[in-house]
Amino acid sequence: MATSKRDDLQTGPTASGDLLLGQGAEFEGKLTFAGTVRIDAKFKGSITTNDVLVVGQNATIDAEITCGTVIVYGEVNGNIHAKSGVEFRSPARVRGDIETPSLLIEKGVFFHGQSKMADLERSSPLKKVGADAPAGGSEAERAGY
User: Fold this and answer.
1) In whole angstroms, what is the distance from residue 131 CA to residue 89 CA?
2) What is the DSSP letter of 69?
3) 137 vs 95, which has greater pLDDT?
4) Cis check: omega of the bond before 101, within 30 degrees of 0
5) CA dihedral 82, 86, 88, 92 (to 10 degrees)
6) Which pairing describes strands 26-32 and 19-21: parallel, antiparallel, or unpaired?
7) Which of 43, 35, 30, 46 is nearest to 5 (CA)?
8) φ, ψ for residue 52 (rounded to 5)?
9) Counting C-beta atoms within 10 Å of the first and last residue's C-beta, which end of the chain has fewer, N or C?
């Protein structure tokens, strides 16, 4: 049976450019990288990349995270800014604010914070209702439905 890239990320890095920071290790500072990094360790500081960060089930991250994509199975304490998307996979525990154009939260995840969807207003199909909106039509039409 073939495995998807997501399945491979759950078990460990597979491509030559991928990196694993394993369980039992502790890191502090600023982490920048290219490619995919999976952290199963304790990390404190900041993480920056345009690529993929996978927070393993055994990880505890206390950091400001700025990434392309963030996939969380473990614990994150800090704000997340993602250019592509954020996925919280069970049994993730996340405390902090999220800013991303795409957010997935599975059942069983603990999330305490605020989320902001980037560019949401530009892609919204709803019409604005206000002083410059026509007064005629039904209430639903005035509300943009």
Assistant:
1) 43
2) E
3) 95
4) no
5) -20
6) unpaired
7) 35
8) -110, 130
9) N
